[in-house]
């Protein structure tokens, strides 16, 4: 049985096999793949839920298609974190994309995902993908006007992900964007991580002219509800820029559609307050 209890005293429980399919300690964290009865294989890092085969589309479609469809022609994409490969896979669904760079600090996450999560990680070997097993804090420093879209698919602000939640890092990410570029970062749970979420938006508002929260369900994350931060210097209202491309994405998506794209920015008042009062 896998259990994750938040500091607020509630969480999730998933029935799993007694022994993990894979368990290793990298230089950064414990990486495990668990087998569950109802959700397929599960990736955890330091015993915290990252993704499951059955519900991963909630997270990966939200972090990728909202910004990708808000850009008129995303050609070059950077994914920071996201070693499971789900965000890379979704970005590649956009026919405009010429290259996706994945910068993941922990090579064991990539190896385990390729072996045990093939439906998620299956596009990591695509010819358009380049993988960099490096610290994104250093990787991004010398990148200037390189990317149309940057997707920060990071872990929580602790352990190897802690340095990705600083003003300096976000400034370097902004500098890596081409004119009209977009950044989206996962921005924690409004239920379980209010303090961390508020801290993150406080930093993002210092760096980017436009910062908008959007939110949606993720069944296997504690609280069942997650948020993402849409950041841009030029885009105030994130609207679909190429309706034909968005409709093509919609055909094969489990979650994303053009109506949802408009609706996700209509966040509840309590989410808006966390983001705006930061």
Topology:
Elements: E1 2-5, E2 11-14, E3 22-25, E4 30-35, E5 41-45, E6 48-52, H1 56-69, E7 76-81, H2 86-91, E8 99-103, H3 107-116, H4 118-121, E9 129-132, H5 136-139, E10 147-153, H6 167-175, E11 177-186, H7 194-207, E12 210-217, E13 225-232, H8 243-252, H9 258-263, H10 269-276
Parallel strand pairs: 7-8, 7-10, 8-9, 10-11
Antiparallel strand pairs: 1-2, 3-4, 4-5, 5-6, 11-13, 12-13
Give structural notes.
- This protein is of the alpha/beta class and 278 residues long.
- Helices cover 31% and strands 27% of the residues.
- The chain contains 10 helices and 13 strands.
- Strands 9-8-7-10-11-13-12 form a 7-stranded mixed β-sheet, sandwiched between helices. A 4-stranded antiparallel β-sheet has the order 3-4-5-6, covered by helices on one side. It has a two-stranded antiparallel sheet with strand order 1-2.
- Helix 6 crosses helix 7.
- The longest helix has 14 residues, at 56-69.
- The protein is globular, with a radius of gyration of 17 Å.
- The N and C termini lie far apart (37 Å).
**Radius of gyration using CA atoms only:** 17 Å
Shape: globular
Q: Considering DSSP H and I runs of 4 or more, what fraction of the residues is helical? A: 25-40%
* Unreliable residue stretches: none
